Amino acid sequence: MEPAALANIGLSARDIACRRGERLLFRGLSLELASGEACQVSGPNGTGKSSLIRILAGLLRPFAGVVDSSGAMALLDERPALDEHLPLGRALAFWQRLDGGPADLARLGLADLAEVPFGYLSTGQKKRAALARMIGQNAPIWLLDEPLNGLDTAAVALVEAIIAEHCAGGGIALVASHQPIALPGARVIHLPDFTA
Amino acid sequence: MSAALTLLRRDLSLLLPGTRGGASFLPLLFFLAVAMLYPFAVGPDAVLLARTGGGVIWVAALLAAILPLDRLLAPDMRAGLFDQWALRGISEELVVAIRLLAHWLSFGPFLMLAALPASALLGLDEPTLRTVELGLLAGTPGLAAIGIIIASVTVALRGGGAALAGLLVIPLAVPLLIFGAGSLSTGGEGGIALTAAISLLLVAIAPFAGGAAIRAAREG
Fold this sequence. Notes:
- The complex is a heterodimer.
- Chain A is 26% helix and 27% strand.
- Chain A is α/β, with parallel strands linked by helices.
- Chain A has 2 domains: 1-72 and 139-196, P-loop containing nucleotide triphosphate hydrolases (Rossmann fold), CATH 3.40.50.300; 83-138, no CATH class.
């Protein structure tokens, strides 16, 4: 992706509130991310980090407020969206055919696993495979929900580097994580500050 | 267009019987088992078998179409594929329409083939077999559409979804059964035409009903 093509991307939310069932999880949350910016959403379990990500992705309607985005979005959450019975290479190939870009298996340490059925992989390997799927989508806006779950220290550092590179290249990354994650220059949204 | 082909390829690899990780031949074996067991149950009365055999084939076809329902949409919903498609601007309607085509391809033509040995087991004559085959050709797309609609309505249910889906399909399939199996006793074309009409209507509705149901399940 050329940085010039990314100048117009953006992700903004104004005054959004989220209700799940009878509970108002958060309200009055606004954010504005432009090309090259990263943002970490922090907070304990159950404060609405995943719901916020799904609202930003357009998969969940906010209880109030508006979300505005320009640019394609890629989502990484706890569901890898890869076929369990297929070898990793072929499971990823399905998304490559939809997205057009090849997935970089070597960088994520998956090159030797291309022939292994996805269902046989460990938790951390599955997470890395899902990352490969997300990176292969070539979308300028990344929404990552707990990207560090199940990863070892080396993989955590790798994910941090990949996110930093993405932002340096003009992309936007919004990371929801209850664990500390090193995102230089990232804005932090502490969700409990917005509890109703 | 290429996205549609990619989706169809994946759907067929999941639903066609005998593919790796795909569906089994169980619905077909089930269908043939009914045709095989029926003469044992009612006795070797050739006249009775020939008169009721067509109807038995229809009932067996309907029940065989119910068997794969729990794996039609729910696994993809659980694995998050529908969310990923939505982010790529691939509509639920397109996904459901393609799944409908793949579902029909994975049981319709096979049932029509299996109806040949089944009709031999039941001693059907040639005109009856022709009516059965034409009726199945007209009716199985409708059965597939009902299956897709019910699978999408029950997509968010865990456990018990398959049993509920089976119960929901049966009343909806009654019109198809009445006209499809009815074409056997009235000698044909009117009943088959009505079966085809119901099928067309169901096939036209299915992508939109299914898409709406999947979006509603996502918000839940």
